Amino acid sequence: MKYLLRLLRGGVIIFQRTLYLLTLGHFPPPFVSVNVIICDGDKALLIDRRDGLGLGLPGGFVGLKEKVEDAAAREVKEETGLEVELAGLVTTMSGKRRGSYIYATCLVYEARITGDKVTRDSLEGKCRWIPLHQIEAHRFAIDHFDALKLFRESKSHESADLKTNLRS
Question: pLDDT per residue over 137-146, tens digit each?
Fold first, then answer.
């Protein structure tokens, strides 16, 4: 399975680069992908990826005629079995993804679980709840660590602002 995923990823890269060369750099536009940060208290839901690249956020590529928001909810459902509601955009990352040869624009969302909190494993990997303060101790796929670190920092600033407002 690990080798099949790598072969598929290699095919996508070759396809993207071939189109780029044949059209003198005008096609294709970068791929659009989504990742979703789901927290339960101080823990974030991550996927222990079967391809051996480490932990990753639930997410994937956006379909041709699909809304980005719908793709985010679909990917979470496919990879974890959870129903979610998007709470907001955390960050946008673009360019060559670290650990990959794919050029992509990735939108990272925060989401809340709306149904049961029971997760299931998928073809992508196994679901794991990791405390946000322990993310440095783990190996991450692509640039998911950067997104989680940014999310954690934004939450700590919100918490500090709330405490300041309560005192005044």
Answer: 999 987 889 9
DSSP-assigned beta bridge partners for residue 2: none
Please name the amino acid found at residue 122: S
Can you give the residue ranges of every domain in the chain? Answer: 28-154
Range 63-69, long-range pairs (CB < 8 A, 24+ positions) = 68/32, 68/34, 68/107, 69/109
Residues paired with 96 in a beta bridge: 103
Residues 130 and 127: their CA atoms lie apart, in Å, by 10
Task: Find out if CATH 3.90.79.10 is the number for domain 28-154.
Answer: yes
Cα separation, 55 vs 15, whole angstroms: 26
Give the tens place of pLDDT for each residue, 94-115: 887 766 667 789 999 999 999 8
Task: Say whether pTM exceeds 0.85.
Answer: no
Please name which of 108, 110, 111, 88 lies closest in space to residue 97, comparing C-alpha atoms. Answer: 108
Looking up tokens 């709470």 gives: 87
Please list the helix, strand and coil fractions of the chain in percent, rounded to the nearest 5, in that order: 40, 30, 30
C-alpha 119/C-alpha 128 separation (Å) is 9
- Average pLDDT, stretch 126-150? 91
Length of the chain: 168
